[in-house]
Amino acid sequence: GLPARVRIHEVGARDGLQNEKGTVPTEVKAEFIRRLAAAGLTTVEATSFVHPKWVPQLADAEALFPQLAGLDGVALPVLVPNQRGLDRALALGATRIAVFGSATETFASRNLNRTVAESLAMFEPVVARAKQEEAHVRGYLSMCFGDPWEGPVPVHQVVRVATALLDLGCDELSLGDTIGVATPGHVQALLAALNEAGVPTDRIGVHFHDTYGQALSNTLAALQHGVSTVDASAGGLGGCPYAKSATGNLATEDLVWMLDGLGIETGVDLAALTATSVWMAEQLGRPSPSRTVRALSHK
Ligand code: HMG
Ligand code: MG
C-alpha cells in the first residue's frame, strides 16, 4: 500500500540552480532556502562543494552555507564528490553529505572525469570519513533508466552500481532519472530488482526529472512499491549541466498536490511553497514550469 507519510528531499536550491545561466546572488539563494524551510520542507539540499569551474553557479558554497546557520531542525545536505569537497563541507559544519555516482560510463566520465570504478574509489574514503564524523551520507545514482549517449540502461547494471554505493556505507540511495525518460513499469522493475539484491525499500529514494512528463506517474509507481523518500524541486527548477536533455526535476508543488489528494502527510504548506516559487521565478525572470504553481498562482 501507499505510505502514510512522505519525506520530501527538496533539491531546488542545488539541482535547480546549478543549471541557471545567470548568476543568482548568494543572498537570494539563502532567502530561497529559508522560505522553503518556512513552507515546511525538512530536508533542503543547499549547495555543492564541487570544482567551481565545473559548476560556477554553486561556486559561492562557502559564502552561502554559513548564512543558513539559524535554520534549526532543517537538514541541509550538500553534494561532495571527493575528499577536497568533504574537507570544505566539514569545515563549515555540514552534517549531511551526498556523493553522486553514475550507472553509466559515459556520464561518469562527463560528470566526474572518472570511470564508474574510479568514481567509486574516489567516494570510498569520502564516505568512510563522513561516517567517522557521524555525518549522514546519501548516495545518488544517475542515469538509472536511460542515458543520452548510451540509451536504455539495463536494470542489472544499475543494481550493480547501486549495491556498490551502499556497500561503501551510504545510508540512503537516491535513484536518479537524470534525463526523465523512465516510465512506471521500468521504475517498479528496478525497485523489485534492488529488493531482490538485498536492498530494502526504506533505504531508497527516487529522483525524477520531468522531461517527458512522467515524473509524477513514476513517483506514484514508487510509492505503490513502498518508497517514502521523494526528491523534488520547488517550481520544477532544474537540470544537469553535464547531461544533455535533462530538464527540471519533478516540481515539489505538483508532488504535494498529489500527496495532499491521497491523504499522505508531508508537513508542507502548499500555499507558502507556491508563493516561494512565484517569488523565485521573479528573481530568475521567467515563469515556473510547474502546472500546479501556475494553477494556484492565477486564481
Ligand atoms: P577533476 O578535474 O578530475 O579534478 O574533476 P581533480 O581531482 O583532477 O583535481 C583538479 C583540481 O581541482 C585540483 O586543483 C583540485 O584541488 C581541484 P589543483 O591542485 O590542480 O590546483 N578540486 C576541487 N576544488 C574545489 N572543490 C572540489 C575539488 N575537487 C578537486 N571538490 C571533480 C573531478 C569531481 C572535482 C569534477 O568533475 C567535479 O567537480 N564535478 C562535479 C559535477 C557536478 O557537480 N555535476 C552536477 C551534480 S550531479 C547531478 O546533478 C545529478 C543528480 O541531480 C541526480 C540525477 O539527476 O541523476 C545528483
Ligand atoms: Mg538531478
Automatic annotation (TrEMBL):
<comment type="similarity">
    <text>Belongs to the HMG-CoA lyase family.</text>
</comment>
<dbReference type="InterPro" id="IPR043594">
    <property type="entry name" value="HMGL"/>
</dbReference>
<dbReference type="InterPro" id="IPR013785">
    <property type="entry name" value="Aldolase_TIM"/>
</dbReference>
<dbReference type="InterPro" id="IPR000891">
    <property type="entry name" value="PYR_CT"/>
</dbReference>
<keyword id="KW-0479">Metal-binding</keyword>
<feature type="domain" description="Pyruvate carboxyltransferase">
    <location>
        <begin position="6"/>
        <end position="274"/>
    </location>
</feature>
<dbReference type="Pfam" id="PF00682">
    <property type="entry name" value="HMGL-like"/>
</dbReference>
<keyword id="KW-0456">Lyase</keyword>
<dbReference type="GO" id="GO:0016829">
    <property type="term" value="F:lyase activity"/>
</dbReference>
<protein>
    <submittedName>
        <fullName>Hydroxymethylglutaryl-CoA lyase</fullName>
    </submittedName>
</protein>
